[in-house]
């Protein structure tokens, strides 16, 4: 036998919707208003760590391909070549470095899992809260390293370390 | 009594006026309810603003929506029973138009008036059941069929408490003529005091509650929306309809909500009238002519209050299960309505 409907609960439910309506209709100056934002006219401020888009710091990238290989969708395309860089010390042999030719992310395929950002050992990939990059054509969602580099500007500063946390040692 | 429309007009002009008036009386409440409650009140209750772009505060949104629906392709399933499939929305909409025919809006502002108004109203309102069943059966779709059968079961189950709830009013007024029920309420008195007439809301409060619950179910609004349960039956009998035919179902749903609110305001809230003692009227012939203009406004106000109540409940409650829905009709509403009739009859004879 199912429980009978509880009358006080029914009245309470009507009260909830009525209160929400009153709250929405209250002027903004009195702390009212809707939870939503009228988007094209007003922009939403996403949380600092929102997963909006993946940005690339090109200088840090060594074309190691870890991100491309860990991507579940295979949406990262990397091409590079070896170059000779001047030696570190005078008289030494020239260094071999990987030079990045192409770094594309196909955002039509990307599922925003963030594995590439996690896996990057050289701090070249970052999450940016930027979200306005829709395109009329699906092929236009393939963004190259210039575009990914521009998004670097929208990446927020890394949050301060917690008390007692050890700062990363190294070069 | 001289009908307002009968003044000096030839028959064809009267008929034309009545048709236009009927279209306005059906479409205006439907549009108002959709914009005011479905678009706006529902949004506010969910802490959002609703349509804001089309016109000031989205007031032109309805035209945009209708335009969108009219542009859409009229699709019919290959195995559908085409004549029945195409007729079903019309049958549902026609029931709404037939309903509005007996609603009096003022002392002389009515489409037609006859002695069995309440009887006619209850009979015609069940024509929509037929249309829904037709839609469900002819769609050649199991979800539509399930929805149509659920709708038929529900509408028949809730037809009964509605009839029984209205009976209390009929017994108290001593007439089935909707116009005379209005007159009886506004010309009535409560223990010799005629300051507010005698709206049957006070004496028939049980009947009013049962009637409004039954109306909610007849309209398949949310606590009783098992037939169109969009999450399990993908809108039930409306699944296969698109474009203009879906629009007709949509208009019929909200126009019927408006017309039932009008009827509820006639039966329980005093209809178009103001208490006659305010202006010293004593019979329908002594009522001033301006009531033909003010009456419809009063009716629309009461209609908005009642349909607002229907929509408020719709937006607040989750859905009944099929067995709960039937149990509620047969085990709660019908006994309560029967008890109300008995009590009314006893009191009517006693006083």
Write up what this structure looks like.
The complex is a heterodimer of chains A (171) and B (351). With 171 residues, chain A is α+β, with helices and mostly antiparallel strands. Chain A has a domain at 53-154: Alpha-Beta Plaits. Chain A has four helices and five strands. Chain B is mainly α and 351 residues long. Chain B has one domain. Chain B has helices at 11-45, 61-71, 82-100, 117-125, 127-138, 142-173, 178-186, 200-203, 205-218, 230-233, 243-268, 291-316, 322-350. The A-B interface holds A 2, 10, 13-14, 16-18, 20-21, 23-25, 34-36, 38 and B 41, 43-49, 52, 312-313, 315-317, 324.
Shape of chain A: elongated
Largest sheet of chain B: none
Helical region count of chain B? 13
Can you name the CATH architecture of the domain at 53-154 in chain A? 2-Layer Sandwich
* SSE sequence of chain B, one letter per element: HHHHHHHHHHHHH
Q: What is the CATH class of the domain at 53-154 in chain A?
A: Alpha Beta
């Amino acid at each position: 036998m199912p429980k009978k409907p509880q009358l006080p609960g029914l009245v309470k439910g009507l009260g909830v919707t009525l209160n929400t309506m009153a709250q929405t209709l209250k002027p903004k100056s009195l702390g009212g208003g809707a939870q939503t934002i009228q988007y094209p006219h007003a922009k939403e401020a996403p949380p600092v760590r929102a997963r909006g888009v993946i940005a690339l710091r090109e200088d840090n990238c060594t074309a190691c391909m870890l991100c491309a290989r860990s991507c579940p969708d295979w949406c990262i395309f990397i091409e590079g070549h070896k170059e000779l860089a001047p030696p570190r010390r005078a008289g030494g042999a020239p260094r071999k470095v990987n030079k990045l030719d192409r770094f594309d992310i196909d955002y039509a395929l990307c599922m925003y899992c963030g594995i590439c950002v996690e896996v990057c050992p050289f701090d070249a990939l970052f999450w940016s809260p930027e979200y306005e990059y829709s395109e009329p054509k699906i092929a236009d969602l393939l963004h190259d390293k210039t575009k990914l580099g521009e998004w670097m500007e929208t990446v927020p500063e890394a949050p301060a370390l917690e008390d007692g946390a050890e700062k990363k040692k190294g070069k | 009594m001289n009908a307002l429309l009968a003044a000096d007009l030839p028959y064809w002009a009267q008929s034309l006026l009545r048709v236009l008036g009927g279209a306005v009386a059906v479409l205006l409440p439907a549009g108002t309810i959709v914009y005011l409650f479905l678009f706006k009140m529902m949004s506010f209750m969910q802490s959002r603003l609703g349509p804001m772009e089309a016109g000031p505060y989205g007031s032109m949104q309805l035209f945009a929506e209708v335009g969108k629906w009219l542009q859409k392709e009229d699709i019919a399933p290959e195995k559908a029973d085409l004549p029945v499939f195409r007729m079903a929305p019309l049958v549902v909409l026609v029931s709404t138009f037939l309903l509005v025919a007996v609603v009096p809006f003022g002392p002389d502002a009515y489409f037609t008036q006859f002695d069995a108004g309440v009887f006619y109203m209850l009979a015609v309102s069940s024509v929509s059941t037929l249309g829904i069943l037709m839609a469900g059966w002819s769609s050649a779709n199991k979800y539509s069929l399930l929805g149509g059968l659920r709708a038929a079961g529900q509408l028949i189950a809730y037809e009964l408490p509605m009839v029984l709830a209205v009976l209390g009013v009929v017994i108290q007024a001593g007439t089935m003529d909707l116009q005379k029920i209005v007159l009886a309420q506004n010309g009535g008195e409560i223990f010799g005091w005629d300051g507010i007439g005698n709206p049957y809301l006070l004496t028939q409060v049980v009947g009013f509650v049962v009637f409004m619950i039954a109306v909610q179910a007849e309209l398949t609004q949310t606590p009783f929306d098992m037939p169109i349960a969009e999450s399990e039956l993908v809108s039930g009998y409306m699944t296969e309809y698109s474009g203009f035919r879906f629009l007709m179902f949509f208009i019929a749903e909200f126009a019927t909500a408006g017309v039932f609110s009008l009827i509820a305001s006639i039966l329980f809230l005093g209809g178009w009238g103001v208490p006659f003692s305010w202006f010293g009227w004593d019979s329908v012939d002594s009522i001033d002519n301006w009531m033909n203009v003010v009456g419809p406004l009063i009716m629309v106000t009461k209609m908005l209050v009642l349909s607002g109540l229907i929509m408020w409940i719709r937006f607040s409650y989750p859905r009944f299960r099929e067995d709960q829905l039937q149990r509620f009709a047969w085990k709660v509403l019908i006994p309560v309505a029967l008890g109300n009739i008995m009590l009314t009859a006893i009191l009517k004879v006693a006083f």
